[in-house]
Design brief:
Blueprint: H1 6-13, H2 52-60, H3 71-91, H4 96-99
Amino acid sequence: MAGEDPSYVLWVGSGRCMAPGCQNMSGPPHHPRHGVGMSLRAHDHRVVALCVGCHASIHSLTWGRFKGWVRQQVRDFLDQAAEKLQSQYKQGVNDDENYFPK
């Protein structure tokens, strides 16, 4: 199916959460919903590594690391994180020191 890249999703999910200040291991990668139609999922190359807690927080924006964020901040964060991951994946980066921000 178009937009699927299981190896990339596994690579993203094998690192640390990208939420600011979080050091937890990633859970299932987050598929952003902005820029796609209703009931659709973004291309796998748009996924972002988030731990389970931050993944729930980014959906609610009422608690956790994303408490108080507005939707545009979330979109900007997700776009920048996805671009960083894509770049590092293409370069073959796979260690935590370079892969995820501290």
